[in-house]
Each structure stands twice: as C-alpha cells, then as structure tokens.
Sequence to fold (308 residues):
Amino acid sequence: MRVAVVFPGQGTQAPGMGQPWRDHPSWAVAERAEEAFGEPLTSLVVDAPAEQLARTRDAQLAVLCTSLVAWDAVKDRLGDSGEVVGFAGHSLGQVTALIASGALGHDDGVRFAARRAEATQAAADAAPGRMAALLGATLEQADAVCASAGGECWVANDNAPGQVVIAGTPAGIEQALTATREHGVRRATPLNVGGAFHTPLMRPASDPIDAALADVGWSPPAAPVMSNEDAQAYDDTSGWRERLVRHVTTLVRWRETMENLAALGATHLVEVGHGTMIAGLAKRTIPDVTVINIATPADLENLTAARA
Fold:
C-alpha cells in the first residue's frame, strides 16, 4: 500500500465538524493549535454557526484545525513512513500538507495560516469577487468563457476532468456566465464563497503573506509535497516562500496534482479532514487509485481495513 495524503481547503467547512474528535486523543492537536494561534480556535470547529464559518478567515482556520487533528490520528495508522509517497492540499490545504509533511513546523504553520487567512480576507473585502463552477467544461472552454469578460474573470481551479472553477469581479462573473452556453459549457453553478480566490484580485494579500513567511523555518519533508502552483513534487526546503506567495493569485492545478501523485506510485489516496470533495475529484481524475476519506474517528477503521 503506497499512500498519497491530501488535505481539503476552504469550502469544506461545516458547523460542528470537529465535534466527533472531542473525545479522541488527537484533540490535543487542536488545543496546541489554539495556543500557537493565541486566540480561541477550538470553538470554531465545535460551536461556530454557518454564518460565522462563511467568513474567509474563520473558514480557513476551522478547516486547518480539523485537518491537523485528523492527520494526527491518521499518521499513527500508516506505519512505516515509507508508505507515504507524497502530500498535497487544495488551496489552503497546501499549508496543511506542508505542516503534516514536517516541512513547516506546527506552530509556525498555524500562525502562518492565520496570517494568510487574514490577508486573503482583507483582499476579498477590498475587492469583492465571486466564483462559479463550470461543469462538463474543459480548461480551454473555461479560458474562452473568461476571455469574454473583458479582463475581469480568470480560471481559478482546474479541479478535475469536467470541473473547472472561474473567479472574478461580480460583473466579470456575470458576463462569463452568460457566455457559457455559447462556448458549450454544460452547466455553471455559482459558489457561495467570499471572494475571487486565486486570481489577480488577491494581489493585495501577496505582501502580507510574504512578510508572514519571512521568519519561518523549513525542514526537509517526510515525503515530497506537491505544489498547487505548478503541480510538481518538491522534497527539499527551497522555494516554498515564493510558491506560497504566488499561489494566492494563480490557478490551482489540482487535476495535474492528482495525476502526478498517481505517477509517484500511489495506490491509495487518503483525504484527511472534513468532507469528501477531494475524494470526489480524485475518483474522476485517477480512477485506478483507491480513495479513503478520514473525516471522523470512525473512518479510521477504513484505513485499517485497507492496510490489512
């Protein structure tokens, strides 16, 4: 069994998603994250209502915290570290992947994630934006749809065959959506998110993110970490500061990331954290790789059974 470990990003949050872990030994990770953060954090994954979790900052911190708790439980079930061939995370999940791999220290990683969340929240507040999923669309069709919006819409996520996400100003998205039928897009669905992430509208977040990484120390990861920016695997410590800064304004190459994880020899993909969004994308992109989702302590038995 050769495992690729992947982590979800913003959009997978839900009220009470951390509740199943409250009585698990790995809950100590949430308490440690709260201490490193310096503000209440565990309440986000237990008590926060949907309205609060709709805010970019709170959503990102909640997803990160839940994923780190789940990873603490998962890593003890994986046995020999050689079983993991690579780590990856979708958008915010890339930060979780860097922490899980050991490339980024836990406390540094939590503090950086908080600064990243604050910076992207501020950018979204300064330049309101929207996102939409194009279903049944190719990357080329998505590019054509965005081109019709007069420079106010961009491809944000190449998620899987037949699923591409676009983002832009409210007017740009409106223009793009009216052009979908002309370009043969089967269906377009607006997304309930608070900004145009992974587009030039996030450029005001770049400098604060760069500053937040100035004093962060890096270590060699336990296994290669895939970069969302170029879908390549990195097993050293150089270049991550630059990649993480660029990443907030550039396309998430998730389809290619999944394909390249499979190319590393992964036989199983383990999604660690709340929801099954990544599992669904993986089944469409790398159908020959077995997908296991670990969202609650009960799901750990699925991993044990797969390793038997």
